[in-house]
Write a structure and sequence with these properties.
The chain is α/β, with parallel strands linked by helices. The protein is about 40% helix and about 15% strand.
């Protein structure tokens, strides 16, 4: 579909038709997967023009490929960005974006609660390359205002954050960052563009683990970065992704294009089930605390209502007792599978501070107002009564 007019079709329509240049080869309804590593030129002059970006033709799949390009165009449209870059994983997207924006002597300020590998990258790996990192509480706008300075070049956060689902005020932080000359990078994995579009609120780059809701079926590992600025996206693609080599496979791009078609449908259903689970847990006598942005009792609820169009499919909670009790609950679950990752059709459960977030010290967990007994649920698309019945029987073991 020609998307010359990007504003008219709605999200659901663009998720199915957005991007591309007219009909697919052989009039295929589904755009084909181009399993080719390289592309033929008519002449050296043709190659020269293509290397110089004077044509839209392809050179080599590490740089570009028609299936990848369609996925990148569709993601840019859905996030409201100028262009996007597909990566082999969410971490490939995050590391390439950070390395593209930072150099020795610079500083990155990030929220104190992040996906474990992102935190390791920011807190431990970037400093080895001369980049200073500060992990602070960005749920308070004053946290950024206090720490930002002329060396700060990137402000990085997830909202909702993983696994505590804290909500960070995107527009307010973007304003502070812009005034200081820093770029804002938002991990939008949990909300997806169905529920939140950070670029419209002032962010410079959105990153995703496309492994999660964008795929939706737990069958790929993938990442994408969407930029507000087309020149930056070009530099990220050809100056970093291409040179570091973390390219997405065309087959993965094809699976993600399939996932995108049902993204809005799935997100609404994930949310419906998650809200029912959160409300159930909130009323349960053996549950100390429930984390879900859709609950009016949740500290970030008002901010979430203001900047999101939905609250997502992730719910965390702390049962009565310590880590041993949490393990008992998790080990008793049957429908929920004990697994890392999230956003699949299947409901998944984990203990983040023993699994995905095990790099956090006890004092950091406490400083974030959490306990190691936190349980994270990725609420799936099974029937909500079956999901709740599984939680009920697991909590009954306490
Ligand atoms: N960002 C968030 C919020 C995540 O939960 C994850 C993975 O769990 C990542 C980034 C990393 O993505 P990937 O596993 O695709 O590299």
């Amino acid at each position: 579909m020609n998307t010359g007019d990007r504003t008219t079709p709605r999200f659901e329509t663009l998720a199915i038709h957005g991007g591309g240049r007219g009909k697919a080869p052989a009039n295929a309804l589904n755009y084909p997967v181009f399993l080719t590593s390289t592309f033929e030129f008519d002449s050296v002059e043709h190659a020269d023009a293509t290397f110089g970006f004077e044509t839209e033709d392809y050179v080599y799949t590490r740089g570009n490929n028609p299936t990848l390009r369609l996925f990148e165009e569709r993601m840019a449209i859905l996030e409201g960005g100028a262009a996007s870059v597909a990566f082999a994983s969410g971490m490939a997207a995050i590391s390439s974006v950070l390395l593209s924006l930072l150099k020795p002597g610079d500083e990155v300020i990030a929220h104190r609660m992040l996906y474990g590998s992102t935190r390791n990258l920011i807190a431990n790996i970037l400093p080895r390359y001369g980049v200073r990192s500060k992990l602070v509480d960005l749920t308070q706008t004053s946290g950024l205002a206090h720490h930002i300075n002329e060396r700060t070049k990137v402000v990085y956060f997830e909202t909702p954050s993983n696994p505590s689902l804290e909500i960070i005020d995107i527009a307010a932080l973007c304003e502070i960052a812009r005034a200081a000359g820093a770029k804002v990078v938002v991990d939008n994995t949990l909300a997806t563009p169905v529920f939140q579009r950070p670029l419209a609120q002032g962010a410079d780059v959105v990153v995703h683990s496309a492994t999660k809701y964008i795929s939706g079926h737990g069958d790929v590992v993938a990442g994408v970065a969407v930029a507000a600025d087309a020149d930056y996206a070009h530099e990220l693609k050809f100056g970093y992704m291409c040179e570091f080599g973390g390219v997405m496979s065309p087959f993965t791009a094809w699976l993600l294009l399939r996932g995108l078609k049902t993204l809005a449908l799935r997100m609404r259903e994930h949310e419906r089930n998650a809200l029912a689970v959160a409300q159930y847990l909130e009323g349960h006598p053996s549950v100390k605390r429930v984390y879900y942005p859709g609950l009016s009792s949740f500290p970030g609820h008002e901010r979430a209502k203001a900047q999101m169009r939905g609250f997502g499919g992730m719910v965390s909670f702390e049962p009565d007792g310590a880590l041993e009790e949490s393990k008992k609950v998790v080990n008793s679950m049957k429908l929920f599978k004990i697994a890392v990752s999230l956003g699949d059709c299947e409901s998944l459960v984990e203990c983040p501070f023993a699994m995905t977030h095990r790099g956090y010290e006890a004092c950091e967990i406490a400083a974030a107002g959490l306990t190691p007994s936190l349980i994270r649920l990725s609420v799936g698309l099974e029937h909500k009564d079956d999901i709740i019945a599984d939680i009920e029987q697991a909590l009954a073991t306490l």
